[in-house]
């Protein structure tokens, strides 16, 4: 059985972690699959949005640290390596997800733990079911943070709340995750696939290049002065004006209809 399922429809690429018997723990094959998909989506104009989710009622229980087949060739399938090397490989993959020039969405059901929480936080939007549970489990294993959460958590929930999550390693329920800013919305578990797909299709149907510019603007905002942000907006708007989607957006407004963007 494949560790990861990849489906493409109407510009939306859905990546499903598919080891339900292990709560979708991420093994070497999982990381290799995600690495390949991210490389494809980044350069394929037909791929206009990415949705990450998990099979069997869970997003992912994190890295597969078992001594079985999930760990025989190291965490990432490159043979036994120093943990520093392994974590740099994982970090590069998560950074590519974070930097993907197309909108990304995590649809989280069940557990979302450890490095899997890092993957979800690296996405642009997070949709959770009402039975979703999030955990920065690292401290319970005697480990420091990874998966990019030392950067993403303080930005989503603030420094004090991030320290609470990291120091105690407690499970966080969906309703608290929403209140704290970890997720965008919470929906009933049986509606998560439908709502996740609907959000994904909306992202895939948007003006892809413009969404890429907006993503870069917002992600860079924390390191810019107000004056720098205004200048970046001017340059980004200049680029947006060159796209076919911008012309379609204006035309649809004048014709009083919904725009039909092509991502170009």
Number of strands: 9
Order of SSEs? EEHEHEEHEEHHEHEHHHH
Q: Roughly what is the average pLDDT, rounded to an integer?
A: 95
User: What is the name of the CATH class of the largest domain?
Assistant: Alpha Beta
User: Which band does the percent of strand residues land in?
Assistant: 5-15%
GO molecular function: catalytic activity
Protein name: Enoyl-CoA hydratase/isomerase family protein
Organism: Frankia nepalensis
Pfam family, one: ECH_1
Overview of this protein structure:
The protein has 2 domains: 4-204, 2-enoyl-CoA Hydratase, Chain A, domain 1 (Alpha-Beta Complex); 208-254. Helices cover 45% and strands 15% of the residues. It is built from 10 helices and 9 strands. A 6-stranded mixed beta sheet has the order 1-2-3-4-6-9, sandwiched between helices. Strand 3, helix 2 (83-99) and strand 4 form a beta-alpha-beta unit. Helix 1 runs parallel beside helix 2, helix 3 (115-122) crosses helix 4 (149-157) and helix 8 packs antiparallel against helix 9.
Short précis:
The protein has 264 residues and is α/β, with parallel strands linked by helices. 45% of the residues lie in helices and 15% in strands.
Question: Which tags fit this structure?
Answer:
2-enoyl-CoA Hydratase, Chain A, domain 1; single chain; 264 residues; 10 helices; three-stranded mixed beta sheet; alpha/beta
